[in-house]
């Protein structure tokens, strides 16, 4: 079960009636010490307070955003914890004219020692069908090591995927960037996924 620390961001006490607990102002409590996971995710009071920004969830590593706090107190969180999957996704289309790298998606994690499978996928296109107008992408880990690069010169989406396997521990990041090559034409990227699975 994932660790769920509820942090009161206000100076007032917050009553979670359906859990029968009071979270004192500016305090933090470990819900997983007292409740079963199914009790936590069933709490409408907890989710309401998270949605309103009065309580945020800490996963024992960092404070989570409202969106990720709500996800952390859902069945999806239990599924990902059991399979030891870290996954992030952005399906929106992004565009750039820049010849410098532009970040599309980034995954930051703090890992236990172990063997991990890193995988990624995305779709890219350029604005013309000219070979001197290309969309270039890269997958970079820990802000220093490009483990995958490619270019695509056509004005229709081409989807790519890849993976890498290795022994990892501690802080680890994966980022997917894109940029244009060639004349002043925009390039596009969408449906980007990064996942990390402990084997």
Plain-language structure description:
- It is a single chain.
- The protein has helices at 37-41, 44-51, 66-72, 75-83, and strands at residues 5-8, 14-16, 21-23, 28-30, 55-58, 85-90, 94-96, 102-126, 133-141, 145-152, 158-182, 187-198.
- The protein is elongated.
- A hairpin with a 4-residue loop joins strand 2 (14-16) and strand 3 (21-23).
- The strands form three sheets. Strands 6, 7, 8, 9, 10, 11 and 12 form a seven-stranded antiparallel sheet that branches. It has a three-stranded antiparallel sheet with strand order 4-1-5. The chain has a two-stranded antiparallel ribbon with strand order 2-3.
- The chain has four helices and twelve strands; from the N terminus they run E-E-E-E-H-H-E-H-H-E-E-E-E-E-E-E.
- The chain has two domains: 5-83, no CATH class; 86-198, Sandwich (Jelly Rolls), CATH 2.60.120.40.
- It is 15% helix and 53% strand.
- With 199 residues, the chain is mainly beta.
- The model has no long low-confidence stretch (mean pLDDT 88).
Describe the secondary-structure layout.
Blueprint: E1 5-8, E2 14-16, E3 21-23, E4 28-30, H1 37-41, H2 44-51, E5 55-58, H3 66-72, H4 75-83, E6 85-90, E7 94-96, E8 102-126, E9 133-141, E10 145-152, E11 158-182, E12 187-198
Antiparallel strand pairs: 1-4, 1-5, 2-3, 6-12, 7-12, 8-11, 8-12, 9-10, 9-11
């Amino acid at each position: 079960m994932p660790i769920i620390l509820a942090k009161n961001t206000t100076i007032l006490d917050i009553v979670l009636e359906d859990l029968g607990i009071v979270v004192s102002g500016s305090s933090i409590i470990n819900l997983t010490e007292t409740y079963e996971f199914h009790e936590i995710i069933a709490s409408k009071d907890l989710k309401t307070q998270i949605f309103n920004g009065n309580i945020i969830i800490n996963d024992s590593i960092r404070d989570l955003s409202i969106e990720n706090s709500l996800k952390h107190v859902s069945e999806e969180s239990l599924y990902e914890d059991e399979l030891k999957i870290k996954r992030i996704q952005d399906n929106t289309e992004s565009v750039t004219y820049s010849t410098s790298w532009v970040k599309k998606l980034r995954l930051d994690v703090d890992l236990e020692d172990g063997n991990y499978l890193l995988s990624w996928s995305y779709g890219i296109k350029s604005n013309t069908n000219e070979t001197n107008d290309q969309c270039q992408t890269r997958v970079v880990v820990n802000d220093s090591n490009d483990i995958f690069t490619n270019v695509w010169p056509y004005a229709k989406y081409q989807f790519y995927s890849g993976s890498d396997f290795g022994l990892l521990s501690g802080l680890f990041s994966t980022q997917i960037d894109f940029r244009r090559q060639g004349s002043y034409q925009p390039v596009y990227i969408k449906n980007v996924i990064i996942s990390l699975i402990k084997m």
